Amino acid sequence: MPPSDPVNDANRVMAADKAAVSRALNLVEDKRSEAHDRVTELLASLKDAPKALGGHRVGLTGPPGVGKSTLASAVARAARARARTVGVVAVDPSSVQSGGSLLGDRVRMSFDPSDEGLFVRSLATAGEVGGLAYAANSAVRVLAAAYDMVMIETTGVGQSEIDIVHVADTVVLVIQPGSGDVLQFLKAGIMEIPDILVVNKADHDELARRAVADLRGALRTAHAVGASGREDGDWETPIIATSATKDTGIEELIDALDAHREHLEPTLAARRRQGEVQWALDLFTRKHGEHGVATLHGLAELTARAERELDEGETPLSLCERLSREYVATLRQTS
Ligand SMILES: Nc1nc2c(ncn2[C@@H]2O[C@H](COP(=O)(O)OP(=O)(O)OP(=O)(O)O)[C@@H](O)[C@H]2O)c(=O)[nH]1
Ligand SMILES: [Mg+2]
Fold first, then answer.
1. Which ligand has the nearest atom to the CA of 70?
2. Which of 50, 82, 249, 281 pairs as cysteine with 242 (C-beta 3.0–4.6 A)?
3. Number of the ligand closest to the Cα of 250
4. Is the CB of 64 within 6 Å of ligand 1?
5. 200 C-alpha to center of ligand 1: Å?
6. In this structure, are residues 240 and 198 in contact, taking their beta carbons and an 8 Å threshold?
7. How far is the C-alpha of 66 from the C-alpha of 69, rounded, in Å?
């Protein structure tokens, strides 16, 4: 591992230096504890990056093969045309099985490699939900310090995938015509209602119209059975038909993303803070279990403390580390 220079690394990430951003994401993938420490340091230096405060973090989730990556690529192109810089990361749990980071494998995206305002890559993870959440959260924070718009892609329709994209301000669920199982999940209220719904592969008008109508019906049923999203009810989930390959519906999708970002503005800081508290406590609980939580005076106390210390400038990773040290010290005292 090359020697670390955290301040310089952070400055280069904030300047959207692609090589520096790429190195930072290599660190996020690296399982060694030395790398982990460096990620903690780096994220602390990026915490107040000017880009991060104003930007937009978008999560794309949905069943395999519906066109999430192709869509991300189309949205990125259109956002670049609107003079915004864009970072895209696909978190890929399967890539570990085939041995490490498969650059671009799950991110079948076409993009201009000479464009300094566009960064794309896929991220290999430990293949378990905890590793996925760590990678997703860290990667998004790195990219958010560098680019106006960050997209994070994860495959699947379970609550864990949706939890992962909660690192985003806006959650977009992507399906394709005929994704009946997703409709059933939504209707049954098993699945959280996303902020935006996209029917991709809407290449044929008739099919697309039917799919959108089906989805609208499913959403009505979902609301009737009491399913909810992260919103308090004053946001109506738009349903947008797109063709990522024919480039239709993309401008409409960006407009919907902008509308949601604007809608969030008054509560965005609180929403992001809540995500950070959750992330810190998840990490801690995964490491030390219920015993760790109990030893540090229970979940309510830990949550209040996390809120306070994050306000005082701690980051989720540094907070988790501090809590771990305290827990271990307490164990030593009592043994
Ligand atoms: N006809 C049509 N095909 C599309 C569209 N969008 C994507 N595809 C095709 O669908 C296939 C899968 O696209 P991806 O973008 O890799 O899908 P994904 O959801 O990212 O897939 P995973 O990451 O593997 O879950 C590719 O062959 C794309 O060319 C579309 O709008 N219309
Ligand atoms: Mg993909």
1. 1
2. 249
3. 1
4. yes
5. 9
6. yes
7. 9
